[in-house]
Amino acid sequence: MSLLRLDRVTVRYGDMEALSEVTVEAQDKAITSIVGSNGAGKSTMLKAISGLTACHSGSIYFEDRVINSLPSHRRVELGLIQIPEGRHVFPHMSVKENLELGSMFGRAKRRRSENFGRVMDLFPRLSKRSDQMAGTLSGGEQQMLAIGRGLMADPKLLMMDEPSLGLAPIVVKEIFGVIASINGSGTTILLVEQDVRASLEIAVWGYVLENRRIVLSGNAREILTSDKVRRAYLGL
Questions:
Q1: Rounded mean pLDDT of the chain?
Q2: pLDDT of 189 over the 70 cut
């Protein structure tokens, strides 16, 4: 069953088409990966889902409900949460304060204590830095904090935009292990990544976005072994 579905979604910035008739589904309780190069339209797609960018045409369904007309904060209340590219933590606030900002609405606020404990268990390093200013954390720790803040919102669907960006390979491996663990606990994940191999290896279903359009979709492992992906993204 699909938790999220985009049906022929087109996004335009003025006269420029940034996304062209994209159809994508995120299956409930699974990891769905969207891969593609810079400028393909991946971040634009997430902004459209989050309500930060309007659709020129097409429909976005969440739990079988059309959400095109809903503002961003209402989508958050429904459990549709985005972790932005580049982390965007609040540098002059503590780790704990950053996390608390993730639980400002409805059920997330009621479950703040429970979710805070979950985040601390998932990221023991953050538990030791609860009172530390977020801006003094390493890049990997800031990414953990951004993920933790997203989890504090009690997501039904967690959208992650380039979580490996700018991180050392050993940290990337740790982050992808955490993503798999979050999904294993029942959270549906829509993962947007340039690291094609790492992204598709942990996903159930995958899509390749090129020049604003979906050019390939299917079982993630089959996409990873396809000649097109091996030549274009893996250098094989």
A1: 92
A2: yes
pLDDT at position 53 is 95
Q: Report residue 166: phi and psi, to 5°.
A: 75, 10
Residue 200, SS3 per DSSP: helix
Helix, strand, coil fractions of the chain, as percent rounded to 5? 40, 30, 30
pLDDT > 50? residue 120: yes
Which alpha helices (DSSP H) does 159-232 contain, by range?
Answer: 169-184, 196-201, 220-224, 227-232
Where do the domains of the chain lie, and which CATH numbers do they carry?
Answer: 1-77+178-236 (3.40.50.300), 80-154 (no CATH)
Q: 223, 216 in Cβ contact below 8 A?
A: yes
Could you tell me if 11 and 53 are in contact, meaning their C-beta atoms sit under 8 angstroms apart?
Answer: yes
CA 71, 88, 82: angle at the middle one, nearest 5?
40
Q: What is the pLDDT of residues 200-210, one digit of tens each?
A: 999 999 999 99
- Shortest CA distance to 123 belongs to which of 186, 207, 181? 181
| Rounded Cα gap, residues 157 and 70, in angstroms | 16
- Residues 119-127 have a mean pLDDT of 91
